[in-house]
Write a structure and sequence with these properties.
alpha+beta; four-stranded antiparallel beta sheet; three-stranded mixed beta sheet; 11 helices
């Protein structure tokens, strides 16, 4: 693994840094999990697209720059160091898009990806159901073939849909063969949220933001063209999406490196010796996550598959995020309870062990698939 950036990558870094310095909003945008905040974030997303920074690693034909995976990491590093807004398009760009590239037809790629890059279509993830959260194979939402209409009729309920109240489309799993085993008989569908029979009902989170939604589907007709990866292949396709969700595409190291640097600045401001060991440990772990990511990127570039190792990523970054913010809270003392970047970051970090598949599920995957331990 070569840790030296090439001249081309350094030039890419300088171009990204200059654009971000000139264009990142001077004041933080309101939360993207509120309706007003989401609208403000969309303006930012469209500015990124106009400058061809919204999907740097995608082919130019779909709105990208044909950048390498290494250049994407460079951009992510600069993006977070510039304090740029969180991406409200992340479910589409970072989760669904890699799956469309891997399993989508040429027609689906041409139809879906450019509109996603331009933030014209906004995608929500439709995994969780009232009786199926981390146990994704327990979903009950179903799809029944309608030969006369030439498509599928979807019925069921999805919940905990992040920013579902503001999005235009949903991707998710539906049971197409109720007699098949749990992980079989599932199909991956793409659903426009303005289709007849769809009801989207937003609801507040504990922090008061209204970013979650539950989605009800009542005999919603979806054409064959919106089946992704083939009928009955849903589990295999969904595992590719969850690999992106748990792995490096959702949580690149730039986010944690930037937070670790902010933690160092905070510790210096508090004076010598303030929780020094914990600050240093958190900073080291952020560097370790970057090195782990670089090793994974090297594997991908050399043609190897990451697979179940994405569960290690998820365990590491979710615990690291909490450690960084807990250390900051100790440094701040009572000030940590005042609303601000550290307090909001701390609250969000607490969700890390839950979303993208709970950490308990990830530990099971590591035990069974990576360590070869027996299932209990």
């Amino acid at each position: 693994m070569d840790l030296t950036w090439s001249a081309e990558e350094e030039a890419f870094r300088q171009e990204a840094r200059a654009w971000l310095a000139a264009n990142v909003p001077a004041n933080p945008l309101p939360s993207g999990d509120t309706r007003a905040g989401f609208a403000a974030h969309l303006e930012w997303e469209r500015a990124l697209f106009e400058a061809r920074w919204s999907v740097v690693s995608w082919p130019e034909a779909y709105g990208g720059r044909d950048a390498s995976l290494w250049q994407w990491l460079v951009f992510e590093d600069e993006y977070h160091r510039a304090g740029a807004p969180a991406r409200v398009t992340q479910n589409g760009i970072f989760l669904l898009a890699p799956t469309v590239f891997a399993f989508g037809t040429e027609e689906q790629q041409r139809r879906i990806l450019p509109r996603m890059a331009a933030a014209e279509d906004l995608w929500a993830q439709g995994w969780s159901e009232p009786g199926a959260g981390s146990d994704l194979a327990a979903i009950r939402s179903r799809a029944v073939r309608d030969e006369g209409a030439g498509g599928w009729r979807l019925t069921g309920q999805k919940t905990w849909t992040t920013r579902g109240a503001f999005c235009t489309h949903l991707f998710g799993l539906f049971r197409t063969d109720p007699e098949a085993e749990r992980h079989r008989g599932l199909t991956y569908f793409l659903v426009p949220l303005d289709a007849p029979g769809v009801t989207v009902r937003g609801f507040e989170r504990l922090d008061g933001d209204e970013g979650f939604a539950e989605v009800f589907l009542d005999d919603v007709l979806v054409p064959d063209a919106d089946v992704l990866g083939g009928v009955g292949e849903g589990w295999r396709v969904a595992m590719a999406t969850t690999g992106s969700e748990r792995g490096l595409t959702l949580r690149s190291p730039g986010r944690f490196l930037h937070t670790a640097d902010r933690l160092l600045d905070l510790a210096r401001a508090k004076g010598p010796g303030a929780h020094r060991d914990r600050v240093v440990q958190s900073w080291i772990e952020a560097q370790a996550y970057e090195l782990f990511t670089l090793e994974q990127v090297t594997s991908i570039v050399e043609g190897r598959q990451v697979g179940a190792e994405s569960s290690l990523n998820k365990l590491f970054w979710s615990q690291l995020d909490i450690a960084l913010h807990e250390t900051a809270a100790e440094l701040l003392g009572p000030e940590a309870e005042v609303d601000g970047p550290w307090s909001r970051g701390f609250l969000f970090s607490l969700a890390g062990p839950i979303y993208a598949g709970t950490n308990e599920i990830q530990r099971n995957i590591v035990a069974e698939r990576l360590l070869g331990l027996p299932r209990r």
